[in-house]
Amino acid sequence: MKPFSRILVGLDLTEMDFILLRFMHHFMRIYPHIKDLYFIHVEKDLEQASIKEEGTLKGNIPIDEQFKMRMREEVEKYYRNDLSLNVRYKIVEGDPLKQLLHWSRIKHIDLIVAGKKVQQKGRGIVMQKLARKSDCSILFVPENYKPRFRKILIPVDFTKRTDNVFETACMIRNQLPHSKFICQHVVEVPSGYTRIGKTYEEFAEIMTGHARNKWKKYIEEHDIKCLDVQPEFISIENGSVAKSIIDFAHAQNIDMIMMGSKRQTNVSAFILGSVGEDLVNRDKDILLLLVKHQNKPYDFFKAMQKV
Fold first, then answer.
1. d(Cα 290, Cα 96) in Å, to the nearest integer?
2. What is the DSSP letter of 195?
3. Which of 17, 30, 90, 126 is 20 to 30 A from 305 in CA distance terms?
4. Which domains does the chain have, with CATH numbers?
């Protein structure tokens, strides 16, 4: 898993921008691998925007250039003197989701940083689609974000996705010596245990025992000593894995959730669903980093094999 060195930050020229810029300023102090920082603003219709902004326009300067000037003024309050950082600005027209995905691929972006507003209608659907379709990792920053990384939760499933998250967590561990990393594994207890004469508690204990054995094998095969973590095992029956993660995160006062994810096509997402997408929609308070290994899309036949 290579470091996040090329970052794309979506700005919408609202108060949310200041939250994102403050966050990035803080994040870069604990994650020193960033080299290229792209700020992008997507306007659905620049002609309509020009009409709406008519009272605030400066002379005959085109609307896209004025948006770029405004964006640059905001950004340079935080990054004016950072000579090691390549900062670039882009104003584009079109559908925000499609443009974010398009430019993330064109610019070989490692990480998209997007704001998550609590009250904005329809925003959750866009964020879910971004989580599903993006080839690169995504960091969702809530509008009530607090600049701290005291406790970081890593949900694990012992797959390659878990490997990617641990590698990323180890990269920032040296910058967060006093932070606590907590792992969580959700054990999904299948129905039908009464047919074999077991109670829910008895069968949950059996399933949790299997999960503990998987964890033991995992740490024997992977070096994660940098994090010094032991997982919390939580069992659920016919429930939402994402809800279990969120409930645990709030109970533990977690500041950020780091979770492995995989790019999915519309078909595979319909068949399999996504815990990461569900997390995006369910929680409005906690930083969420979906770590993706940039590889080929998850195709229909792989999705069918898991049904």
1. 20
2. G
3. 126
4. 6-142 (3.40.50.620), 151-305 (3.40.50.620)
3-state secondary structure of 116: strand
Decide which of 121 and 110 is more confident.
Answer: 110
Give CA–CA dist 288/9, Å, rounded.
Answer: 15
Q: Which two structure tokens, joined as six digits, stand for 38?
A: 């792209």
Rounded Cα distance between 72 and 96, Å, is 20
**Do the bridges between strand 137-142 and strand 287-292 make them parallel or antiparallel, or are there none, so unpaired?**
antiparallel
| Rounded CA Rg of the chain | 21
Pick the closest to residue 287 from 59, 7, 19 (CA basis): 19
pLDDT for 136 equals 93
Which candidate, 305, 242, 253, 249, places its Cα nearest to that of 278?
A: 242
Lowest pLDDT segment from 26-30, 31-35, 283-287, 297-301: 297-301
pTM: 0.86
Block residue for tokens 């002609």: 47
263 has pLDDT over 70: no
